[in-house]
Amino acid sequence: MPHVLAATSPSGLQQFWFVTIAVLWLGYFFLEGFDFGVGVLMPFLAKDDMDRRVMINTIGPVWDGNEVWLITAGGATFAAFPLWYSTVFSGFYLALFVLLAALIFRGMAFEMRSKKDTVSWRRWWDLAIFWGSALPALLWGVAFADFVHGVPLLANATWTGNFFDLVKPYALLGGLTTLSLFTLHGATFLGLKADGEVRDRARRSGVLLAPLTLVLTFAFLAWTYTTAHTTHHSGLVPPFLPILGLVMLAGVGWLMRDRLEGWAFVTTALVIVIFFTTLFLNLYPRVLVSSVSPRFSLTLSQTASQHYTLKVMTIVALIFTPFVLVYQSWTYWIFRKRVRRTDPTQLTSDVGS
Q1: Spatial contact of 90 and 144, defined as CB atoms under 8 Å apart
Q2: Region of residue 201 (left: phi > 0; alpha: psi -120 to 50; beta: else)
Q3: How many other C-beta atoms lie within 10 A of the C-beta of residue 240?
């Protein structure tokens, strides 16, 4: 009979770091979500190169800072729950490789598209921005859906599946849901940050995207809630949380139609937070569900580092986190103005030139 890793109740520090990692992921998806959305919308909302430059410059000062949340979430997972980290990178290797390659090319595109003033050169880098935004927006949803719904794990965190085990219907629905959520979030952000025709097109796209996003989100959360209560995979899924998210999401189209883009942006941000909070609550106290048997699911206590490591990490985090938050808040405050086609100081070049 295969040996199963011993599971005990998680300690206070283990729970603290699970919550901390969840908050880091929520921050990443809230901030990077609108970056992805702007990149996905660029081929559809921009009518000429000036429009594309407007859209890129709305996220230009902040996109790389937003990705710090991803690096921090990955580093914290590696340090606090090394077995969780290693198992995910082993089983999700190909998907993560595609995702990271997309992020790399997307970052290169922001820096490189203005280095050469030819149509073909910028067209290729604009495609890199689109695919470098759409693929991560899709694949992050697939990955987190797999965390919750289950992957082929045996005893001792032994992975038995392949890439196609990661893209089953529930996971694909999760990916389409995050893709639509982030795209809608990008539309509300453009309505808040852009001006002129780009703002008007973003508003109209938000009105059109909101019903589709609502349908996909409802279907995914309903499937998640049903699975949690009909299998051994149940975590903590309070019904009021997804219902609140759906009610808020239902109002985004109305907010965009009435040009209340600021409130629409806050609403899509909160919906993203609620969406991923629901997944983390569903997951707890596990970090990775096994689709083979609940006995093989990985838990906080099985995958955590030593108590001393978690204690040192906590002290360091409490000291340095406030500085990071203050700096990033200051960055958003400095670049809070709208980006306009007619403002030469903002549109003389693209990001990174």
Answers
A1: no
A2: alpha
A3: 7
DSSP state of 290: B
Q: Does domain 12-324 have CATH number 1.20.1630?
A: yes
What predicted TM-score, i.e. pTM, was given to this entire model? 0.89
More confident: 309 or 324: 309
Burial class of residue 75 in the structure, from the number of CB atoms within 10 Å of its CB (0-12 exposed, 13-18 middle, 19+ buried) = middle
Amino acid at 80: A
Contact in structure between 283 and 148 (CB atoms under 8 Å): yes
First to last CA, the chain: 61
Task: Quote the tokens at residue 320.
Answer: 């340095």
Task: Supply 25's token pair.
Answer: 């992921």
> Would you state the pLDDT for residue 1?
41
DSSP letter assigned to residue 291: S
- Of 28, 30, 340, the closest CA to residue 189 belongs to 30
Comparing CA positions, the residue from 211, 207, 231, 208 lying closest to residue 219 is: 211
CA–CA separation, 98 and 103 (whole Å): 9
User: How far is the C-alpha of 342 from the C-alpha of 353, rounded, in Å?
Assistant: 19
| In the chain, domain spans | 12-324
CA distance 184 to 205: 8
Rounded CA gap, 139 and 98, in Å?
9
**pLDDT (tens digit per residue) in 137-179:** 999 999 999 988 888 888 777 777 777 778 889 999 999 999 9
- The SS3 assignment for 234 reads coil
- Rounded CA-CA distance 126/43 in Å is 8
Q: Rounded to the nearest 5°, which phi and psi values hold at 239?
A: -65, -30
Backbone angle region of 150, left / alpha / beta, with phi > 0 → left and psi within -120 to 50 → alpha: left
Cβ-based neighbours of 76, under 8 Å, separated by 6 or more: 17, 20, 21, 24, 313, 317
273: left (phi over 0), alpha (psi -120 to 50) or beta: alpha
